């Protein structure tokens, strides 16, 4: 009997080894991607708090990228990265509610981590706390539903796609991609602490490479600290900004350039970290009137906050986005290709809800009820505020005191607790019509082998993130963790509670300090929480669930008017072409066409597109080569008349585009008062794309120079090898003699 069992085991193991090429795997991993694009018209963009910055079209679609990690004991965690400004507590409560309905206890608020890339060019209105929805005219159901539907779809796809896998981790330095936008506050940190670091922002990028049992790459996550504010507050097109574009670049690299965005098997997430004081505008802040650098401490120009703006590295925001995206993509690809450190160990998690307004962090030190300072209204050099506020101000204005006091005058206790912050909005003491900012927040840590994701519900500054990582690493080691942990700050996770500075940075009251809502000891309180979670994880101890956060979704107010109806205008039909393309274009040129349109809010076209660029094959069949999710296209909506719209579609023909015949199609969804929403499609005439001689000559010249360089390197290496062989031969002959 034992011989039969042994033979069966040998055969079984042989089959398993043959199926996996003999590569043992540590984990099961599921990966999924789905569209979460919000309304492309009339909705305020989340991030800059500029009421005039409402959506008027689309440049890059938003995606949810989900990664499920499971160890051999079936412990699992879910990491979800969104092309969104941040996440919100109300959204997570709804996501978890629907996941529990479908999967039972497999996915809960404890083992699901949802984070945003922090793009400032996607629709808002998805929060449950009032302050964050004020500029979007309250809650926007369309944005909320897009996020819920897309996130759940990406989780379903990841769940259905679980497979044996290995994970590798790699870290490297990425330069010329981020700067500190509040260097005067950073300099308040102790000199001995600053001396430990080469830069005043984190330059390291951490990448995990995920491969299946055949060692075939299936996914990647990159963490790098930089704001997604390459697209500035004048942008009106939905965009996933530099991190979203970097993800599309790497996915196209792995899936092939012909695979449309969001449709490939390989998924790459470019996630956020401790970016609180970190800008992608590497030329730095300059005065719009003089071109000179702004005031160092206050970011003003002749006392004017609005004139101080950071630029670069490109000539405009589109070029800057592409440059910062490409630099992240190139470094992530390099780290991905060379990753060799195997991730090994269990999957685990610890989660608790924390009332951040009631934390004690030492004798006489405690956190406060939420409040926003005066410098919050000043904005940042990435997007200055519109009034006479300045960063680095520890004093208040009688006029604005009267305005804010009309809403709610802060108590003496609040003023004392938040000092030296002058309070502009006493959000923690306002409950009308419902809470303005959170007191109870999500705090969570994930473990995948030696990786520890510290899920922070706020924007931690550079030094705040460093202190948090160090504290978690020390706690892990002090409590028995063997080896070197890799702690990663996963910023803007699960909830949004504004900013977190160090105690020293808080004294400067730059924008980040004015937006640290729980007072000067906020960071210390957070660190205590994450140390406790780390200790519990290492010792195998449970943690208390903490106080449940409120669910305010039933109380939401919305003042954004709905789409009433669309009109094509006299003598027109919806989707009629108003401006045809030229008969012929060269590579490198821009195609511009216009259509009789309708409001894009009628149909967000999740998993679909408002436009296509189609190529005519020799067989006569049409192939879609670009959609509204591609960087090369832009979809602009303009309203005029009563219910009338014009759609402008741009296509920048890239170098290397296949010559031939093309057309552009617009998918129009128009609303009637009586019959609801109807769909119609319109297409341009066919036009020809031809190769640009100048572009080709330049491309060929570049290739020629590269080939010549390689040839010289080969010759140089060959001569060096011959010289070495000759030297060794002479040495050998001498030895023989």
What this model shows, in words?
The protein is an alpha+beta fold. Among the domains are: 314 residues, no CATH class; 115 residues, Neutral/alkaline non-lysosomal ceramidase, C-terminal domain (Immunoglobulin-like), CATH 2.60.40; 42 residues. It contains 14 helices and 37 strands. Strands 1, 4, 5, 6, 7, 9, 10, 11 and 15 form a nine-stranded mixed β-sheet that branches. The chain has a six-stranded antiparallel β-sheet with strand order 2-3-33-34-30-28, with no helix packed on it. The chain is globular and about 75 Å long.
Low-pLDDT segments, ≥5 res:
1-20, 728-737
Q: Give the beta-strand count.
A: 37
Give the CA-based shape.
Answer: globular
Structural class: alpha+beta
Distance between the termini: 70 Å
Helix content: 25-40%
- Major β-sheet annotation: 9 strands, mixed
Overall mean confidence score, pLDDT: 92
The helix count comes to: 14
Strand content: 25-35%
Over the alpha carbons, how many angstroms does the gyration radius reach?
A: 28 Å
What are its keywords?
nine-stranded mixed sheet, alpha+beta, disordered C terminus, globular, 737 residues, 37 strands
Give a short overview.
With 737 residues, this protein is an alpha+beta fold. It has 14 helices and 37 strands. The strands form ten sheets. Strands 1, 4, 5, 6, 7, 9, 10, 11 and 15 form a nine-stranded mixed sheet that branches. Strands 2-3-33-34-30-28 form a six-stranded antiparallel sheet, with no helix packed on it. Strands 29, 31, 32, 35, 36 and 37 form a six-stranded mixed sheet that branches.
């Amino acid at each position: 009997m034992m011989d039969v069992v042994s033979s069966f085991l040998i055969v079984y193991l042989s089959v398993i080894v043959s199926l996996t090429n003999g590569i043992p795997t540590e984990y099961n991993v599921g990966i999924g991607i789905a569209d979460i694009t919000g309304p492309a018209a009339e909705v305020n963009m989340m991030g800059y708090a500029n009421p005039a910055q409402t959506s008027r079209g689309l440049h890059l679609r938003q995606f949810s990228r989900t990664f499920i990690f499971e160890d051999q004991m079936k412990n699992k965690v879910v990491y979800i990265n969104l092309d969104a400004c941040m996440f919100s507590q109300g959204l997570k409560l709804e996501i978890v509610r629907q996941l529990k309905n479908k999967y039972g206890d497999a996915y809960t608020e404890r083992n699901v981590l949802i984070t945003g890339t922090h793009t400032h060019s996607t629709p808002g209105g998805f929060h449950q706390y009032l302050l964050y929805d004020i500029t979007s005219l309250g809650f926007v159901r369309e944005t909320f539903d897009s996020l819920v539907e897309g996130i759940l779809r990406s989780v379903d796809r990841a769940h259905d796609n679980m497979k044996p896998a290995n994970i590798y981790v790699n870290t490297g330095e990425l330069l010329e991609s981020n700067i500190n936008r509040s260097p005067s506050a950073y300099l308040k940190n102790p000199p001995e602490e600053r001396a430990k670091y080469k830069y005043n922002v984190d330059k390291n990028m951490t990448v995990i490479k995920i491969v299946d049992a055949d060692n075939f790459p299936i996914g990647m996550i990159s963490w790098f600290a930089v704001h997604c504010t390459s697209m500035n507050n004048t942008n009106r097109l939905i965009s996933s900004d530099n991190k979203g574009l970097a993800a599309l670049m790497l996915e196209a690299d792995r899936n092939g350039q012909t695979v449309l965005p969001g449709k490939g098997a390989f998924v790459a997430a470019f996630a956020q970290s401790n970016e609180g004081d970190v800008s992608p505008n590497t030329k730095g802040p300059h005065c719009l009137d003089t071109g000179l650098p702004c005031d160092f401490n206050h970011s003003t120009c002749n006392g004017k906050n609005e004139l101080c703006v950071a630029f670069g590295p490109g000539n405009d925001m589109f070029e800057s986005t592409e440059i910062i995206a490409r630099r992240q993509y190139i470094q992530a690809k390099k780290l991905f290709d060379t990753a060799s450190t195997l991730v090994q160990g269990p999957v685990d998690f610890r989660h608790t809800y924390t009332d951040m307004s009631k934390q004690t962090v030492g004798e006489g030190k405690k956190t406060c009820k939420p409040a926003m300072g005066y410098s919050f209204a000043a904005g940042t050099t990435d997007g200055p505020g519109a009034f006479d506020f300045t960063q680095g101000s520890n004093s208040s204005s009688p006029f604005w005191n009267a305005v804010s006091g009309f809403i709610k005058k802060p108590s003496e206790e609040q003023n004392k607790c938040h000092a030296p912050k002058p309070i502009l909005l006493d959000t923690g003491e306002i409950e009308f019509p419902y809470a303005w900012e959170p007191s109870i927040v999500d705090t969570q840590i994930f473990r995948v082998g030696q990786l520890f994701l510290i899920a922070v519900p706020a924007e931690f500054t550079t030094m705040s993130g460093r202190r948090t990582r160090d504290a978690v690493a020390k706690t892990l080691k002090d409590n028995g963790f063997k080896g070197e942990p890799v702690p990663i700050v996963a910023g803007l996770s699960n909830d949004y509670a504004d900013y977190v500075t160090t105690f020293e940075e808080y004294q400067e009251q730059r924008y980040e300090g004015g937006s640290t809502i729980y007072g000067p000891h906020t960071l210390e309180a957070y660190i205590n929480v994450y140390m406790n979670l780390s200790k519990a994880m290492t010792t195998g101890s449970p943690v208390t669930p903490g106080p449940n956060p409120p669910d305010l979704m039933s109380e939401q107010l919305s003042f954004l008017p709905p789409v009433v109806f669309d009109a094509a205008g006299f003598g027109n039909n919806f989707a009629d072409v108003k401006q045809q393309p030229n008969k012929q274009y060269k590579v490198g040129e821009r195609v511009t066409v216009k259509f009789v349109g309708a409001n894009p809010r009628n149909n967000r076209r999740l998993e679909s597109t408002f436009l296509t660029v189609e190529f005519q094959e020799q067989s006569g069949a049409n192939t879609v080569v670009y959609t509204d999710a591609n960087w090369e296209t832009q979809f602009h909506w303009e309203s005029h008349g009563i219910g009338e719209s014009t759609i402008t579609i741009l296509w920048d023909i890239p170098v290397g585009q296949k010559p031939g015949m093309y057309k552009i199609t617009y998918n129009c969804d128009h609303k009637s008062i009586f019959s609801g929403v109807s769909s119609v499609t319109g297409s341009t005439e066919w036009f020809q794309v031809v190769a640009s001689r100048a572009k080709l000559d330049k491309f060929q010249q570049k290739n020629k120079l590269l080939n010549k360089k390689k040839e010289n390197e080969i010759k140089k290496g060959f001569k060096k090898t011959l010289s070495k062989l000759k030297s060794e031969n002479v040495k050998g002959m001498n030895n023989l003699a």
